[in-house]
Design brief:
The complex is a heterodimer of chains A (140) and B (136). By secondary structure, chain A is mostly beta strands. Chain A has 1 helix and 10 strands; from the N terminus they run ββββββαββββ. In chain A, strands 2-1-7-8-10 form a 5-stranded antiparallel sheet. In chain A, strands 3-6-9 form a 3-stranded antiparallel sheet, with no helix packed on it. Chain B has a single domain, classed as Phage minor tail protein U (Alpha-Beta Plaits), CATH 3.30.70.1700. Helix content of chain B is 24%, strand content 35%. Chain B has 3 helices and 6 strands, in the order αβββααβββ. Classes of the chains: A mainly beta (140), B alpha+beta (136). The interface between A and B is medium-sized, with 15 and 14 residues.
């Protein structure tokens, strides 16, 4: 059933940052391994090593326990974020799976935008290993 | 009172404090005694973050100075349109960018420049309209 992205949830390291998230994307991809043999009429493809990632666009937040604190602490210490995303609300189930990934802090862009724009924090978090999909669990 | 009404009252308070002598009402009036201002509701963009986290609101502040050929009123409008200074409408509105904690932020982005407005009694006044972007 189609639905409008409205009440999706985003959590990082146990902090619910949903109210700051403008855009969210969970990307599950695998390398395209070419297994074309001699004489083949078309390319052969196999799914290779996964390369999953989360992408967010968040409103910048420099309050005491806000987004900046959540993201910068792990970035400075070269830590790993636990990232959780749901499509709609925090009740996890088959109709509202939980996407979980553990993402090394490879980059941090605390503020972005032109004069007059809302200050934004674009976030790209490649997962270490894969993003898992669960129909049980808790948020955040 | 609703959040929108509170915001209009807070904008009116900023303007009254920052621009001396201007009569400010948070609502549109049939008749005005210049210099005067009213505050109009612009567009609202809901759901600018997940779970209704951010609403983007535009408010329009229209200021009337006086008759179209009055030199003093034109000089007053020059002062109102300045980006900064004692009589600057932009500076007055931005003197408290959270409106006492009602909103997350605001920004005065534009003024129309000199406009001629026809009042209900068919008199004409010059003035300008300022656009205020607010994030709730």
């Amino acid at each position: 059933m189609a639905f409008v992205i409205r009440n999706g949830k985003v959590g990082i390291d146990g902090t619910d940052i949903t109210s700051l998230i403008r855009e969210v994307s969970v990307e599950l991809t695998a390398d395209d391994v070419d297994v074309t043999a001699l004489g083949a009429g078309g390319h052969g493809h196999l799914a290779g090593i996964r390369d999953d990632k989360f992408t967010f666009t968040a409103y910048s937040d420099f309050t005491a326990s806000g987004l900046h604190t959540v993201l910068s602490t792990k970035f400075v210490s070269a830590g790993t974020y636990e990232v959780k995303v749901t499509p709609s609300g925090s009740t996890i189930g088959t109709a509202n799976p939980l996407f979980i990934g553990y993402c090394p802090a490879l980059s941090y862009n605390p503020i972005s935008g032109a004069v007059g724009d809302a200050a934004m924090t674009p976030v790209e978090m490649p997962a270490n290993g894969t993003i898992t999909i669960s129909t049980t669990g808790t948020f955040p | 009172m609703s959040q929108i009404s509170d915001i209009k009252d807070a904008l009116a308070a900023n303007l009254k404090t920052g621009v001396s002598g201007v009569q400010v009402l948070g609502y549109v009036r049939d008749q005005v005694t210049p210099p005067a201002a009213d505050i109009r509701r612009g567009t609202l963009d809901y759901d600018q973050a997940l779970n209704g986290g951010v609403t983007h609101l535009t408010m329009l502040i229209r200021v009337f100075v006086a008759g179209v050929t009055d030199k003093g009123s034109q000089q007053r409008l020059d002062a109102y349109l300045a980006p900064a200074g004692d009589e600057s409408v932009k500076a007055a509105i931005e003197s408290d960018t959270t409106l006492g904690g009602l909103i997350q932020d605001l920004h005065v982005t534009q003024a129309t420049g000199e406009q001629t407005y026809t009042m209900n009694d068919n008199t004409q006044m010059i003035g300008s309209e300022w656009t205020v972007e607010l994030w709730l």
